[in-house]
Amino acid sequence: MMKSKLFDYIEKDNFVYNLSGVTKLICFLLLSFAVMFSFDARVIIVIMVLSFIVLHVSEIKFKQVRLMMYYVLGFLVINFFLTFLFSPRYGVEIYGTEHVIFRITDHYTVTWEQLLYQITKMLKYLSVIPLGMMFIFTTDPSEFAASLNKIGVGYKAAFAVSLTLRYFPDMIRDYNDISLAQQARGLDLSKKEKLGRRLKNMMNIFVPLIFSSLDRVEVVSNAMDLRGFGKKKKRTWYAGKKMTRNDYYSLAFCAFVFLASIAMSVFINHGRFWNPFI
């Protein structure tokens, strides 16, 4: 049952949910830019802790994000080993020093510099992903579109964003329905079947999924045309939400974190990389 709620918005009443959609988007962008710009592990850890605190405050259950987290952790592990496989001395090149932990071969040498670089890169992903989850799960697509239009984004573009956010849970529900229907007809998608056969069987799900998606696009397009969408230059929004003091406090705090991250890189580290080996 929870699979059908992946990427789905479920209304709650707490600090994060009550923020404006634009506030959450700007805060997400500010903290993401801070993480992407800086290679200072200290700054990234602070933002990572902050992102997990926000995820906890938003009351998002682990079972809602469990599947996504498993994929992310798998990606991080693969990325960690591939980075060392193809660039085992990149950390040495960045920091300009070499402190050997142990040698595998002359080319593959594990150093503290390489370890710091790769751990910092992993922390960057772990900092941004909870913020993205928070934004997806706590933002009402209609309210977000109204907020975008309020700050100057054209209502057609804002409505397109709203439809996109609504499309993911609908597509996942369709995939689950089609998968169950095909399995009821004898289609085997379990691990008992050979990999090649399973991939072939999955095509029996993707093909009707594509056609159902195209059918939904046509239905929505016809409904919008019948209601005269796009005829006027402006429109009103039922789900519009006014900015509150909490919105302004949140924006100010995220802007402070962003500027502090830039200041750390420019004035203290004299570059994007924090070098503890000097």
Structure description:
This protein is mostly helical. It has helices at 21-37, 41-57, 62-86, 90-95, 112-138, 141-150, 155-184, 195-226, 245-268, and strands at residues 100-103, 109-111. It has 2 domains: 17-139 and 258-269, no CATH class; 147-226, no CATH class. The chain has a two-stranded antiparallel ribbon. It is flat, with a radius of gyration of 23 Å. It starts with 20 loop residues before the first helix and ends in a 10-residue tail after the last helix.
Look at the helices and sheets and give the structural class.
mainly alpha
Overall tally of domains = 2
Order of secondary-structure elements? HHHHEEHHHHH
What kind of assembly state do the chains in view correspond to? single chain
Question: Helical content, roughly?
Answer: 55-70%
Largest sheet: 2 strands, antiparallel
What number is the mean pLDDT? 83
| Distance linking N and C termini | 54 Å
> Cα-atom Rg, whole angstroms?
23 Å
For the largest beta sheet, what order do the strands appear in spatially?
1-2
Mass-distribution shape: flat
Count all strands and give the number.
2
Low-confidence stretches: none
Q: Percent of residues in beta strands?
A: under 5%
Number of helices: 9
